[in-house]
């Protein structure tokens, strides 16, 4: 229990309870990042007598599981993003600041941002992860990843521009290269992206072109491992692969990428795929939390934390979500998914409340509610432990679950309208090529 | 009538009608720009036996009258933009190319784009206008205008960032400067922008901040002339001004801007307004059509055309919409509004059809259906000649008219949902700060 009595030498031995309370400084909780973890922590402190400051370099919370839909023109950015202030506007003990974190002084208990120094008593680091190229950073320019809204609109522009350029191309080889899309990485993001691109090419825009047949587009999913969706049970992985192939996606397994440039990719076995649009869904690297704290991290930059989500020796600091390497009680790694981040945020809020009250709190336990991935318009795979679904049933569960967890009634209503119309009309509403370089 | 008989020396005096028809080359109509004018021209040629090529440097048609709603976070870009291909997908005689026009060879009848040369028999130039600073181009960086989606998301980011920075500011003078918004220009765009910003500050986000009172924001509309909405009857201009002032907008008339930089603006009478967010709605400059054609233009860069919408001496070239300076039969200038552009596009299609058939067509006549401008959530002014509305009635007409003319059922449904929810909940769904410089 950490209490700062500001006038400790008041001299009176008979402590007036109210006067004492008034001299206890309200504890300051600073939360870095307003993703699923950071928001859950802030909301978990809503009834607490603490000052909460949420710092994020963006003004919005992003519903990342639907980001691939922005990248493939199914949804607009505003439909999956919500201003952080709006989400927390009724929670009076929260202040939101849009700032970029530059460092942390653990001794002085200060967060340094570009513009100010912010003192904390408890610090929650929930700054997430970015996609990573693991030693091949030069691939970033030709093979963008998908973590932010800017990434998604960039990928959307690249996909749509490829069809535009193919329509204008005079040369057959050019046209084939322009109509070949390579998605690197067979996890949920890669599977969802590849399925959505295939559907876009083969169903949605097929009547729009005169000189090319967009349905002849080649979509190749390249995965270094032996299966897609490796976190799923083997049967569902196999079903996902079959669903992808039914949509016309070529799935290349045990195919590591060794070269990636504007011409396309080369695989470890020497095969070359000519493509003007390579998308990266093969790995993530955690934010700089380990560097800020000067504590050990794993290969993906995630801070090693104990069962209380503290980096060893830092009981006032919690690292959660994709920034933390957490193992559950059975020694398995907790996956980098939204529900896990949310549970860590909730746990952290409980731990801080218990700490202030002088109570004990148990270690973090991850409750696995299952996994979901969608493959095109009408198929998905779902693993809820004993219940495993695939096809239309899983797709309906996927849609309902994502609508349900999407923040805000208004976004839910808008996304519902869009999905219902997309289902009926095979349309995609957000087919804009917007250029970040252009005014 | 222009017919190219490809085998003119076939020798047979007894012309077989069908054989003759087959040797007539299908006339090529090239349309530059897919705004209201260009699209109307393409659609007007839907039953014509011609090859139509629509060239635009973007892949979408933009519903410009609602662009200010994107700039003030009320709508998403995809709600007011529609892929050009999608709009024209069922019209088999149209090819759409996303290219940037670089020049026109009138002698050879060729349009030169960045990548190709495109031959035409008839050319329709409908490339619109950009906002302009009339000799003060250095103001562009500090006072963005509103013509494209990129402009709108940039303005949205500036407005929302100003509130964010004010919340973080420690200094009262900084805070006041950050909470002062200056809109330069009292035409429809300026009036609509100023009204929407005032409403955003005073109603929508007022609960979201802890350190600032967003409703104390100062919104100043600066107009060089003596009235706002000068194209409206004086009574409605006066009503618009009063509505703006009821929303808390300071309206400064006869106030020309003489300096504009990051500190704010200076007016001709020496007054200075400290502001971190100056928006430009004071003037437009037509596209480069006059330069491409080497023909005379007016001060705003608009090509002088005759009553047939041809630049004098160029019967195969039509210049329409905001790129043309057109006077109607009574000698008045046709205004640069969407319905006028649409009517010119329709007229041009009719003129080309008549020309191919060897028929005559009358000169272009502008039918003025009235003017509309909206001021905040529940007031507008409307001038339909004898019928003049203001307040809630005009606002309802404004909403219905804009929904009606918005392209595509899906967009209409989405915008309707958003407006209905905004009306009930005083919310704005698209409050994202996205940075064009950031990946």
User: For the CA atoms, what is the radius of gyration of chain A?
Assistant: 24 Å
- What is the fold-level CATH name, i.e. the topology of the domain at 17-57 and 99-131 and 285-357 in chain A? FAD/NAD(P)-binding domain
Strand order of the largest sheet of chain A: 5-2-1-9-20
Strand content of chain A: 15-25%
Assembly category? homodimer
Structural class label of chain A: alpha/beta
CATH-level-4 superfamily name of the domain at 17-57 and 99-131 and 285-357 in chain A: FAD/NAD(P)-binding domain
| Terminal CA distance of chain A | 54 Å
Averaged pLDDT of chain A: 88
The CATH architecture of the domain at 17-57 and 99-131 and 285-357 in chain A can be named as 3-Layer(bba) Sandwich
Most residues in contact: chain pair = A-B, 60 and 59 residues
| CATH class assignment of the domain at 17-57 and 99-131 and 285-357 in chain A | Alpha Beta
The residue fraction in helices of chain A comes out at 25-40%
**Count of alpha and pi helical runs of chain A:** 12
Keywords:
homodimer; 439 residues; alpha/beta; FAD/NAD(P)-binding domain; 5-stranded parallel sheet; 4-stranded parallel sheet; 24 strands; disordered N terminus
